[in-house]
Design brief:
The protein is an alpha+beta fold and 965 residues long. Helix content is 18%, strand content 39%. The chain has 8 domains: 2-68, membrane protein fhac (Ubiquitin-like (UB roll), Roll), CATH 3.10.20; 71-148, Ubiquitin-like (UB roll), CATH 3.10.20; 154-235, Ubiquitin-like (UB roll); 239-311, Ubiquitin-like (UB roll), CATH 3.10.20.310; 317-400, membrane protein fhac (Ubiquitin-like (UB roll), Roll), CATH 3.10.20.310; 406-481, Ubiquitin-like (UB roll) (Roll); 487-559, Ubiquitin-like (UB roll) (Roll), CATH 3.10.20.310; 566-961, Beta Barrel (Porin). The protein is built from 17 helices and 40 strands. A 16-stranded antiparallel sheet has the order 23-24-25-26-27-28-29-30-31-32-33-34-35-36-37-40, with no helix packed on it. Strands 7, 8, 9 and 10 form a 4-stranded mixed sheet that branches. Strands 1-3-2 form a 3-stranded mixed sheet, covered by helices on one side. Strand 5 (127-134) and strand 6 (140-148) form a beta hairpin.
Length: 965
């Protein structure tokens, strides 16, 4: 006997060998043939199986003629989507799941379901046409549903059955189906229909008819008018009056805390919940002894009354919360899990209620039980007249820990020796460790995750424990039943249009023959999403329930729009200035408003290899910038490594002294070493120059010339913040170090380093202490002839500070050295001082903020202290408090202040008012640049101009978006 299959290769050879009961050379028996057919059907890979027998020599050829199962590979909705329903809703209605067997009946049901969804949304004329295509083998089915929507119907005045008690026009207005003022009926949608029924219930609620019932009996479509006639059955029920006795409670509070208003229904369960909610409400206001009962009075005529009887008792303040009896955990660890809090600045009477008390007892007990204290008891003790005052109370959480239960022995059954060691190293319930159900549950998840990751989807886990003979010690027994291991047969990819297959293959961690790991499958899906070129990535296992060990793995893609365009509008408000030769009077700048417009255009998935080309532009009165970049992720096929090529033109006018221009080309390689740590290596060539110079007579020609800079730099960042937009805990450390020199084509030689350390501490659940320190230095060397080393640093390259994001003791870019009229080069002439900022080669800044809730959930208050300055050189850094004279700017300037933060989805909007404690004074000039040119240095024939004493204002105001740091 020999066995053949037509068509061949439907099953993987390993599966076929495992399932085959007929063996070549064996006697042919009918029961073996029947069993073989049953086993083949159990694989799910065949729609039909027939058996043919053919004599051959002294034996027989048994041939299984099969019709292989076809599988759904993709479902596509075509046609211009008229929302609602949106494309996602249309895709979710048919229960045609990727990887499942395809049947014509299922497709017909799916078409009917889509048709019903369209009709429910007023699209009665919609046509749904399915199309079925197969791949070359005929086993992968690609479904397309073409939807022609037609026009959406509109509502008509509804027909009302029952005793509505309301005029028909009032009911129509309550539905919201008719436009206000113009009285035109709206188009039908499923959500609008449901909203109309809810609107009628809300209208009855205004009349206190909380037992009203609204039923939609029919929606009759008139194709001639393209109108829908709703038929409603209304039962208004009696009026229900809910009131509070013995305590003043507003209607709004009752509606918020008594759920009958939200549920639009009344029963004893809802009323009991309302009583508990009202009790907790009053206890949160300091009435800790409040009790609330409810009673329903007998209906009279059309009125039914519900009364909440509230006994408030005296009002208290909780001034002391204590934890007693704890030995294993410190008090801070326990307090982190408690809702009860003593009174404070933002909790005037503290936080206490019966619900909070019970929740705190439960949370503390669970903390102990998860660490082996199975017999722990937690009780709260209320201490009246705490501190001798009748209106003050204290609360003690009394903990009786009991003995800690420990594991003496852990036995792991059903696990192979090659994985036993690695598994045992990850388990929590090992000898000497605390014993708890929480640890056992964690072990269960670890073990099943391990088996799932290695292709055992049906693995089973059983946990037992028994006393070990030592008091409070146990033996733990884990039994694992792995089941059959499954493997990847083939990876089938569909949906790629512009994207190259090579890009997908680079991200695939599963290959034919690998264990079918659910963990690797999900990780690959996430990695593909992270590329940013797909709007949808679906993965599925073909024939998931069939009795086969080799499964095809399906990945289906929807490519994202390749072009993204975003436009932004913003503004800056603060004390800043732009260069102007007409007036030199205000060297410290003036309060101004600068609108800003931005445009970003990105081309995703360039050339189909996942690269991105971007063009960005910013235009405002302070800055004009345009840049283009080419971003290549996964450089050299290494995770977390990317390379960016960019060119940039920037003209900035936010420094009072001069405007700066920069043209730059750079190459940057980025590497993410871990989730928190990222490194950058950059080579940049830029040409910097100054323009709109306010005080040209003070600048020697070398400072007015454009300068070419070649810079090699490296940056390392370690970000452990919990939320980069609004952090509450964690830290951020960055270091940026670079060098410019002739050997890389630079016309200036200097080293540059900037370090930043920021930490965030959650003092309580709602108060955060944030601090930041910045230190920077520029070290010039080999200065060109005619320039000192300090003066060889181009003006736009120097450190400038001051403003909302650095030191709020100064206006924008007003920190550091200023023009004092001193010679620019040794031995050069002195000139008239103007007091304009010149920047520096060193920087030390420190910011401290206390962030706390102020009003509600979205408004936060900030008290802050800023300290530091920009210094002429590293040697001039000083933290002294006082300015020696009006030519001394190398000292630490302090500012204190208060700010507001309003939480938004894009980050907090902030306003800061700062008081500069020791702002610098300086000598300025009252007049224009033309007036300045008429002045001469001491000893010259030109008349000397009179200097005017000026200083930075004590008060500074800033308005911007985002936290300071």
């Amino acid at each position: 006997m020999s066995v053949q299959y037509s068509p061949p290769n439907v099953l993987h050879p390993s599966d076929l060998a495992r399932l085959q009961t007929l063996k070549a050379g064996s006697p042919l028996r009918s029961e073996d043939v029947s069993e073989a057919i049953d086993r083949l059907f159990a694989t799910g890979e065949f729609e039909n199986i027939a058996v043919e027998a053919e004599a051959s020599g002294t034996g027989v050829i048994v041939r299984f003629v099969t019709v292989p199962t076809r599988y759904i590979s993709s479902l596509t909705i075509q046609g211009k989507v008229v929302n609602p329903p949106n494309r996602g809703e249309l895709m979710s209605v048919p229960q045609l799941l990727r990887g499942n067997a395809f049947h014509e009946a299922d497709l017909n049901e799916a078409v009917d379901a889509i048709q019903k969804l369209l009709v429910a949304n007023g699209l009665y004329e919609a046509k749904v046409t399915p199309d079925v295509k197969a791949d070359d083998t005929g086993r992968q089915i690609f479904l397309t549903v073409l939807v022609h929507y037609g026009k959406r119907a509109r509502y008509l005045m509804p027909i009302v059955h029952g005793d509505a008690t309301l005029p028909l026009n009032t009911i129509a207005r309550a539905t919201g189906w008719r436009m206000f003022f113009i009285n035109r009926w709206k188009k039908v949608t499923e959500a609008r229909t449901r909203g109309g029924l809810s609107g009628i219930l809300s209208r009855y609620e205004k009349d206190d008819r909380l037992k009203a019932r609204v039923e939609l009996e029919a929606l009759d479509y008139d194709p001639q008018q393209r109108r829908v006639l709703p038929t409603l059955n209304l039962d208004p029920g009696p009026r229900v009056e809910i009131e509070a006795l013995e305590a003043k409670v507003s209607r709004g509070v009752l509606k918020r805390y008594v759920p009958v208003f939200q549920e639009k229904s009344i029963d004893n369960d809802l009323l009991a919940e309302g009583a508990r909610n009202l009790r907790d409400y009053f206890q949160s206001k300091g009435y800790f002894d409040t009790t609330v009962d409810f009673r329903t009075l007998m209906p009279e005529s059309d009125l039914e009354k519900v009364e909440f009887v509230i006994s408030q008792g005296p009002r208290y303040k909780i001034v002391h919360v204590e934890v007693a009896g704890n030995k294993y955990f410190d008090e801070e660890t326990i307090r982190e899990r408690m809702f009860i809090e003593p009174s404070s600045f933002y909790l005037r009477r503290g936080r206490y209620s019966e619900a909070f008390r019970k929740k705190d007892e439960e949370n503390i007990a669970n903390l102990y039980r998860s660490n082996g204290f199975r017999d722990v008891t937690v009780t709260s003790i209320r201490m009246p007249q705490y501190g001798g005052k009748a209106d003050q109370i204290g609360v003690t959480m009394q903990i009786e820990e009991g003995p800690q239960w420990l594991v003496d022995k852990m036995t792991l059954n059903g696990v192979s020796e090659e994985v036993r060691g690695s598994l045992e190293a990850e388990l929590a319930s090992v000898p000497g460790q605390p014993f708890s159900e929480v640890s056992m549950a964690a072990d269960r998840n670890r073990i099943l995750t391990h088996y799932s990751s290695n292709g055992f989807p049906a693995a089973e886990f059983k946990a037992e424990w028994q006393p070990s003979g030592t008091p409070n010690h146990v033996n733990v027994i884990y039994t694992v039943t792995p089941g059959q291991q499954q493997f990847v047969r083939e990876i089938i990819i569909t949906g790629l249009g512009k994207t190259r297959r090579k890009l997908i293959d680079q991200r695939m961690t599963l290959h034919p023959g690998d264990p079918l790991s659910a963990v690797a499958q999900a990780a690959t899906k996430k990695s593909l999403y992270d590329m940013g070129v797909f709007s949808r990535v679906d993965t599925a296992i073909e024939n998931p329930d069939g009795d086969t060990n080799y499964k095809n793995l399906l990945y289906a893609f929807d490519e994202a729009n390749r072009y993204n365009v975003s436009v932004g509008v913003g503004a800056q408000v603060g004390r800043f200035g732009t260069p102007s030769n007409t007036d030199l009077t205000s060297a410290g700048g003036s309060t101004g408003f600068s609108p800003q417009f931005s445009l970003n255009v990105s081309r995703l998935n360039f050339l189909g290899i996942g690269h991105t080309v971007s063009l960005r532009g910013v235009y405002s009165s302070l800055q004009k910038r345009v840049s283009a970049s080419y971003f290549a992720p996964r450089f050299q096929n290494i995770d977390g490594r990317s390379v960016t090529f960019s060119v940039l033109y920037d003209q900035t006018l936010d420094i009072r002294t001069f405007g700066s221009k920069r043209q730059e080309a750079s190459v940057q390689v980025s590497q993410q070493f871990s989730r928190a740590t990222t490194g950058l290596f950059r080579i940049a060539y830029r040409r910097v120059s100054v323009s709109d110079v306010l005080i040209p007579v003070l600048l020697i020609p070398q400072l007015l010339q454009s300068v070419r800079l070649g810079i090699i730099s490296a940056n390392i960042a370690r970000d452990r913040r919990d939320n980069s937009a609004d952090p509450h805990r964690g830290s951020l450390n960055t270091a940026d170090i670079g060098i410019a020199g002739r050997y890389i084509g630079s016309e200036r030689n200097f080293g540059r380093a900037l370090f930043r350390n920021a930490t965030y501490y959650r003092l309580t659940k709602n108060i955060t202490l944030a601090r930041q320190t910045q230190f920077g230095v520029i070290a010039p060397f080999a200065a060109p002839p005619g320039l000192s080393e300090d003066a060889s640093i181009p003006l736009p390259t120097r450190f400038f500070g001051g403003g909302a994001d650095s030191s709020r003791a100064f206006p924008f870019n007003q920190a550091g050295p200023r023009d004092t009229g001193a010679p620019t080069v040794p031995g050069g002439p002195s000139s008239q001082p103007t007091g304009f900022p010149l920047g520096g080669n060193a920087l030390v800044l420190n910011n401290v903020e206390l962030r706390f809730p102020l009003l509600g959930q979205n408004i936060q208050g900030v008290a802050f202290h800023d300290m530091g300055n920009v210094y002429r050189t590293f040697k001039d850094i000083s933290l002294r408090f006082h300015q020696r004279d009006n030519t001394d700017f190398d000292y630490a300037v302090h500012a204190v202040g208060f700010g507001l933060r309003y939480r938004t989805p894009i980050g907090p909007v902030r306003a800061d008012l700062a008081y500069s404690v020791n702002p610098p004074s300086y000598l300025g000039f009252a007049g224009s640049a033309a007036d300045l040119l008429q002045c001469g240095p001491a000893g010259s024939t030109l008349p000397a101009c009179q200097s005017t004493p000026q200083s930075i204002s004590h008060f500074q105001f800033f308005f911007s978006i985002g936290q300071t740091f």
